[in-house]
Amino acid sequence: MEKQILIVTSLICPVPGKAGAWESNLSGMTRAAAAGELYHQFVHDGESAKVIISGGKINGEHNPSLSDVLASEMHGYYRVPNIDILAESKAVDTPDNAELTANFLRERQMPLEGFLVTNKYHMRRTAFLFERYGVKVEKIIAEEYLRSIGKHIPLVEEFERSREARVYPWVNLALEAITHMPYGEKVLRRYVHWDIKRHGGRTVV
C-alpha cells in the first residue's frame, strides 16, 4: 500500500532581499526536511509514497498559501517529484489541518492514515486532533527523526536554538488545555480567523 506522509505547515515569512519570495520558518523547514528524507527512504525501500501538505493563506489573498511554500521547498530542496505532492490549501490552524486533511483523504478515497510530521512541541495536540477526525497517525517528530538519521543537523541545531523552540512549547501547552475544554476548539478557530483578518495571521495555533 502506498505510504502517506502528512505534513502540518508552520508559518512563512518573506525572504529578505527577494521581492515576492516567501519561505517557511525554522519549524516548517525541519518538517519539510524530515518529510523529504522519509519520502526518499520509502522510495529507496521500493515503496511508493505521497506527501500531503495542509496549510492555507494567512498572509493575505495576494500572497502564497502555507502549503504552496512548503510544496515548493519539498520539490526544490528535497527533490520530491511534484506528482507525489498533494496540497490541502484552506487550513489556517491546527484543528483545520486535522479536519480538512481528513476530508481531503475521504474525497479522494485515500486511506485515513499516515505518517504525521511536525515538531515535538506540536505533536501531541496535532496527533490528538487528527485522530479526533478519524485519521490514524504514526508520529514522526521532525527534529528527532533528522537526528536519528544524521541528516540536516545544522538546521536542527539552528531550530533548537531559536525563539520558536523556546516559546512555542509553552504556547502549545496552553492551546492543548483549551482544545480539551468544552467548545475550546470552536473558540480557538474564531480567534484565529479574527487574527488573520485583523493582523495577517500572527498566531501559531
Task: Tell me what you see in this structure.
The chain is α/β, with parallel strands linked by helices. The protein has helices at 26-44, 66-78, 94-107, 120-132, 142-149, 153-161, 163-179, 184-199, and strands at 3-8, 12-14, 22-24, 49-54, 85-88, 113-118, 136-141. It has a five-stranded parallel sheet, with helices on both faces. β6 (113-118), α4 (120-132) and β7 (136-141) form a beta-alpha-beta unit. α1 (26-44) packs across α2, α1 runs antiparallel to α6 and α4 (120-132) runs parallel beside α7. The protein is globular, with a radius of gyration of 16 Å.
In short:
With 205 residues, the chain is α/β, with parallel strands linked by helices. It has helices spanning 26-44, 66-78, 94-107, 120-132, 142-149, 153-161, 163-179, 184-199; strands at 3-8, 12-14, 22-24, 49-54, 85-88, 113-118, 136-141.
How would you summarize the topology of this molecule?
Blueprint: E1 3-8, E2 12-14, E3 22-24, H1 26-44, E4 49-54, H2 66-78, E5 85-88, H3 94-107, E6 113-118, H4 120-132, E7 136-141, H5 142-149, H6 153-161, H7 163-179, H8 184-199
Parallel strand pairs: 1-4, 1-6, 4-5, 6-7
Antiparallel strand pairs: 2-3
Total beta strand runs: 7
Mean pLDDT: 89
Largest sheet report: 5 strands, parallel
Q: How helix-rich are the residues, as a percent range? A: 40-55%
Spatial gap, N to C terminus: 32 Å
| CA radius of gyration | 16 Å
**What is the helix/strand order?**
EEEHEHEHEHEHHHH
Kindly report the spatial arrangement of strands forming the biggest sheet: 5-4-1-6-7
* Uncertain spans: none
**Percentage of residues in DSSP E strands:** 15-25%
Question: What is the tally of helical segments?
Answer: 8
What is the approximate shape? Answer: globular
Structural class by helix and strand composition: alpha/beta
